[in-house]
Amino acid sequence: MSMTLYELEWGLYPRRVGIYLAEKGITDIDRIAFDLLAGWPPPELAQLSPLATVPILRTEDGTLIRSSIAILEYFEERFPSPGMLGATPELRARTRELVAVIDEAALHFGTWCHKGSPAFAGREEQSREAATIAADAYYGRLRLLDTLARETAGTFLAGDGVTIADCITMATLQFAKKLYGVPLPEGCSVLRNWYDMFSKRPSATAPCYPEPLLAVAHGLPNICPPTSP
């Protein structure tokens, strides 16, 4: 039995894995993409995840891995070349430090969307205060990421090679910009230059977002907090 990846190919967390697989050159995986417009959650997803979230990786022995970061690290152990964590303990520590920062940013962005976007109106309680706090925290994490990337001074975020930190950051920034119309905050010049560069890589080709979702998601930028530190 081959491995199977269950995903929503344009989703915030599944995109991390999609970009990684393209950069890594891993193709021998069955990929099943759910359709949000067909109704969520799909019935079969309840059997795979108690939270009905994706991505989910089913390994050859039937083990289910339901965390995007755990999936990426699993692939790194299964397919160590080319390495995308870092060649030394120091580089791996730096990669994981960046991953922690952008993962926190993604969590804050999700809260911002759920509490402030018209896309979630009527589905859960909205709160402008909670959305604004989450938006401010999101931008704060991005500014920290910009500072850390400035210290690295490499072609990519953690140095001179692509790491899972690049994949997770690209997935987050692309999702925020392309689906919700949220740009990078002012002053993040290193992160902006990196985004412009990485966006040109084949792995980062933007997916197709559902038109009905695009029509309402762009209401989010109206509550942007000030973008200067």
First-to-last CA distance: 51 Å
Output the helix-strand order. EHEEEHHHHHH
CATH architecture of the largest domain: Up-down Bundle
Classification by helices and strands:
mainly alpha
- The CATH C-level class name of the largest domain: Mainly Alpha
Domains, number: 2
Mean pLDDT: 90
Percent of residues in helices: 40-55%
Rg from Cα: 17 Å
| CATH fold-level topology of the largest domain | Glutathione S-transferase Yfyf (Class Pi), Chain A, domain 2
State the major sheet: 4 strands, mixed
Strand order of the largest sheet: 2-1-3-4
Low-confidence stretches at least 5 residues in length (pLDDT < 50)? 224-229
| Coarse morphology | globular
Tell me the total number of β-strands.
Answer: 4
Beta strand %: 5-15%
Count of DSSP H/I helices = 7
Give a verbal description of the structure.
By secondary structure, the protein is mostly helical. The chain folds into 2 domains: 4-78, Glutaredoxin, CATH 3.40.30.10; 89-223, Up-down Bundle (Glutathione S-transferase Yfyf (Class Pi), Chain A, domain 2), CATH 1.20.1050.10. Helix content is 48%, strand content 6%. The protein has 7 helices and 4 strands; from the N terminus they run βαβββαααααα. The chain has a 4-stranded mixed β-sheet. A hairpin with a 5-residue loop joins strand 3 and strand 4 (64-65). Helix 1 (12-24) packs parallel to helix 2 and helix 3 packs parallel to helix 5 (164-178). The longest helix is centred in the middle third of the chain and has 28 residues, at 89-116. The chain starts with a strand and ends in a 12-residue tail after the last helix.
